[in-house]
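hey so i finally got around to running the thing on that chain from the lab meeting. sorry it took forever, my laptop kept dying and i had to restart like 3 times. anyway pasting the input first so we r on the same page abt which one it is
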Amino acid sequence: MRKASLFGDSYNGLKKLRTLTALAMFMAMSLILARFSIRFPEFSLTWSPIIKMYVGMLFGPVTGAVYGCALDLLGFFINNRGDAFFPGYTFTETLGVFLYGLALYKKKLSLPRIFAIKLIVIIICNLILGTLWLAIMTGKGFWFYLPARIPSNIFNLIAHSLVFYLIAQCLNRAGVTRLFRSADTERSLIGIKKSDKNDTSDGGNI
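ok and heres what got predicted. didnt touch it at all, straight out
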């Protein structure tokens, strides 16, 4: 698929009422899930990143980037506990959903692909940028925070990849995903499925 078409289709989705309604629903779900987490002694596991992955898969990089930016800004004003606004985190959220859309939009869903893009997002957005923003805000060194952030991100990598894959598969089979996809996306996926039937190679699609 040409990247121009990928970006164009994703951008055109922003013009549709169905897409905007779905984004508002997913945004509300993300804000609610952000308040609930499974806490461990050294870190906590949150589930809102799974919705960001789903939005990227459904609507692509352009719409995903707009969603990530809007979600971060809205979340700051709703869930703010007196912290100062830092634009670096908004950029990180925008980039994260953009990358999910780039890797998952109009692509065949597979666990290796999901694991790979989740790993890329964790390295770039969480470990590099997230640690950098934390170091800037606190005045402490980058390497002071990085080692302590690695174990929790490894755990999130495995948990989010597996849970997203299972949820996405269930929603696809139940026909829920089809409700949000555009006609162009459906035609693209139908084309992928037809080509799969004629492909006798080992299908690790990544």
